[in-house]
Amino acid sequence: MTAPATDRPAILTVMNLPPFYLAPLKQNFTVYERLHQTDPEAFARVAPTIRGVTGGGESQVPRALMERLPALELVSIMGVGYDKVDVAAAIERKVPVTHTPGVLDDEVADLAIALMLSVARRVPQADRYVRDGLWASQGNMPFARKMSGARLGIVGLGRIGKAIAHRAAAFGMSIAYTGRTERKELPYPFYPSAKALAAAVDFLVLITPGGEGTRKMINREVLEALGPRGYLINVARGTVVDEQALIQALQNGVIAGAGLDVFENEPQVPQALRDLHNVVLTPHMASATHETRQAMADLALANLVEHFAGRPLKTPVPECQA
Ligand code: NAP
Ligand code: 8YV
After folding, report:
1. Percent of the chain beyond pLDDT 70?
2. Which end of the chain is more exposed for a tag (fewer CB within 10 A), N or C?
3. Same domain, yes or no, for 145 and 239?
4. Does 55 contact ligand 2 (Cβ within 6 A)?
5. Do residue 299 and residue 157 come from a single domain?
């Protein structure tokens, strides 16, 4: 049975939620949709009653917002990455943070492979070639680059990284990885740094968390190591790459190309990057299918429902696990 509206815990949303998340959220809670952004005066009035915050992997939940919410009990993120949540501030206030690991691995891995194929085989350019009538007027397109059988390096062999490796194996690719720790149980060679890995592969795929630990980990030196026949694929976070160094590397043939789903200052993408012909760009959409976003919404909602029913959280972030 649904509780009367007045008895329902108050939740603040910090992003535009899809209808299939917002509707059940409103059935269970009193929902203030981005009120802190849309109506600061109304927000000031209800802030002391807000007990939960929910948003996506790109949503900001800074210390300053938490300080406005004295009754806050839970931050539920509809996304696996939570680098824009100030987890340290949440822990200080004994507020757990939850996310949605696992349910999006296939989807993000699929897009990583799609970007690799797109940039190597120049699929967007080929599409334009046909649409613009160039096939008929100029003949066949120049040859592209083979992906099957090439060497893949994965920076961050976690849940999604392993799903990428699994798919790449079906393309006959050799697989190597780097991370903070070597995983002896895995059958792939470990390299101690992104630079060492880059020097050994044709495709370097980034799938680490964002945040301070990985900021600008992929810099000019790593790109030089990847070399003029190497491709960079970023489905992690824009902050992992030094974007200016990447633009220069792409402009000057230091690397062959890049497939990018994430950027330093989303949704702004530098004009210099958009002007390049050796890149394939997608708008942070690796998990954005009906099926997967539904699964993510269900899990984000379940964490809120379980918490307010006094039951254990389904998927707290590692820092908040007992
Ligand atoms: P995960 O299972 O926690 O894996 C993360 C991997 O990154 C681990 O192998 C970890 O290994 C490694 N790592 C962490 N910190 C590192 C560091 N400082 N240097 C090097 N490696 C590091 O997470 P996941 O579920 O696979 O998700 C990974 C990330 O993908 C998310 O955090 C998010 O940023 C991104 N993502 C993007 C999209 C999108 O739409 N483009 C969608 C979903 C996820 P060690 O601990 O051994 O270092
Ligand atoms: C989404 C993501 O863009 O899960 C993540 O870390 O970056 C993506 O799946 C986001 O979480 C949607 O809200």
Report:
1. 98
2. N
3. yes
4. no
5. no
